[in-house]
Amino acid sequence: MTQFFDWQTPYSTTRLPVFARNLVSTSHPLAAQAGLRMLWQGGNAVDAALAAAATLTVVEPVSCGLGGDAFALVWDGAKLHGLNASGVAPAAWNLDYFRRRYGELNGIAQQPERGWDTVTVPGVIAGWEALHQRFGSLPFADLMAPAIELAERGHAVASIVARKWAAAVPALRNQPGFAEAFMPYGRAPNVSERVCLPGHAATLRLLAQQGPRAFYEGESAARMAAFAHEGQGALTLEDLRDYRATWVEPVSQDYRGYTVHELPPNGQGIAALIALGLLEQFDMAALACDSAASQHLQIEAMKLAFADVYRYVADPRAMEVTPEQMLDPAYLAARAKRIDPCRASPVESGMPKAGGTIYLAAADERGMMVSFIQSNYMGFGSGVVVPHTGIALQNRGCGFSFDPRSPNCVEGGKRPFHTIIPAFVTQHVEGRQQAVMSFGVMGGDMQPQGHLQSIVRMLDYGQQPQAACDAPRWKVQRNFTLALEATFDTSTASALRQMGHCIASFDDPYMDFGSGQYIWRLDPRDPERGYVAASDSRRDGLAAGF
Fold it and tell me: What is the per-residue pLDDT across 479-537, written as a single tens digit (0 to 9) for each?
């Protein structure tokens, strides 16, 4: 299964691939160790993922929290399962609600970026609940134990987390509850300073004792609803009580003899699948891996994919077309013909025929693999933190459109367009579908682009996961200009500019170019070989195993 990998690492990196039979790969070392602790106790990959996820809300609160959303793909040893734990808009939300509060510009209601009127129902705890009920093997309280210990005793803040924490404070310090929870010294903590989160620990203890449903129906829910009422927010106890995570069927696209899986809309994972479907029409392996010709084709495919995603993707109940129509082979083949191999082209959506995030991966020696992602969206999210609970509420309301013509237009009970997306790769081996890789790349609309670039590097060019992870990245921005990582080859950048790409350079790899975690199964015919894992050096992460 891995004989085509070149095990060299041709890019500057501080990381090496990790080989083991049980693995956890996350963006923070303490979270990876929390996951391994569950595996040592006899738990499975889902137990490990949940312990790591809970720990990440403590050690990386700049990216995720108890008031965020989550998605997961789980290989149970025989089948792939998808979970959508993204929250819905409060029942009171609609365009008139925002128009009354914020006015309008050019006939469109104004949209806030932070505060109560960006807060959707938190889905992450319901996601933990659903995963544990279906696949967990250890008691839920055991899974919370590492996070509770770190929140109570404190931990020394990691380097990249500290930098992003400091960057968030100026914009959020006056949001309700933020300073009390996340400015322990009257400021953001410095690298290595100890931070304790007693309110966070109290909420985790409550969930450990009473179960995760207490978050939506018990004391935590009552506190959230009361604080929302006090702040004139729309979130109610009924909004919380009515929420459940949803099991969904993944969508997929074949590529170079493998099958890449994403979750269906309301997420943007389908963008990666569309782009891969377009590139399937080209002989990528005939082009040098880091050449302008290869990068250009990937960029053009991504632009076309985003044009369709931004036009059509929303809560599935509101979409005009289905994912199957967007991935129709004939439609993708026709769209691929719009790609000029020598020149950047303007993009527009097609017409399919009608009919600051953390990512972690975990795998165990029994064959279970988990691809999991959770987020508060923009850094600490809305900036609103429920007092004495550590519940930092997300600002996923920003994912809605305020254009009444859009299928993604804001409406109570509706899920917004979502950026966070886990991914998975399978292959048919000896007549059976077999798990190959759980992977993901954090970072807003960089995520499907990171998926695309990683898959092309691994499957077209044979780069091993850590090399594919470390390689310089490009990013198609919402206005379809192109951002290049500071380490991007200057001659390739110059050639792309000559092809007509409008290029800007950014030096913030944490947010602009994402951060990935990868676990690849070495050989399904020989489970004793285990896996190889990679962790992105753009964050404080760690791939660890035994």
Answer: 899 999 988 999 999 999 999 999 976 555 445 798 999 999 999 888 899 999 999 99
- Count: domains in the chain: 1
DSSP states of 401-424: B--TTSTTB--TTPPPPB----EE
- In a domain, residue 32? The reply is yes
Active-site entry in 55, 357, 426, 492: 357
Is residue 175 included in any domain, yes or no?
yes
Domain presence at residue 499: no
pLDDT band at residue 258 under the 50/70/90 scheme = very high
Q: Which domain holds residue 141?
A: 19-69+90-246+378-399
Which residues neighbour 494 within 8 Å (Cβ) at sequence distance 6 or greater?
none
Active site residue 203: no
Side-chain half-sphere exposure of 504, counting CA atoms within 13 A: 13
Distances in Å between the Cα of 418 and the Cα atoms of 70, 88, 312, 395, 490 are 10, 11, 13, 11, 33
Contact 397, 117 (CB under 8 A): yes
Q: What is the pLDDT of residue 430?
A: 85
Q: Does residue 350 belong to any structural domain of this protein?
A: no
Residue identified by tokens 């006090």 is 230
Answer for the pair 228, 236: CB distance below 8 angstroms, yes or no: yes
The pTM of the full predicted model, rounded to 2 decimals, is: 0.96
173 burial (CB, 10 Å; 0-12 / 13-18 / 19+) is middle
Average pLDDT over residues 194-219: 97
What's residue 475's pLDDT? 95
Has residue 343 got a pLDDT over 80? yes
- DSSP structure class, residue 380: T
CA distance 84 to 418: 10
Burial of 367 (0-12, 13-18, 19+ CB in 10 A): middle
pLDDT of residue 280: 97
Residue 243: in which H helix or E strand, if any? Answer: none
CB 518 within 8 A of CB 26: no
Distance, in Å, from the CA atom of 443 to the CA atom of 86, rounded to the nearest integer, reads 17
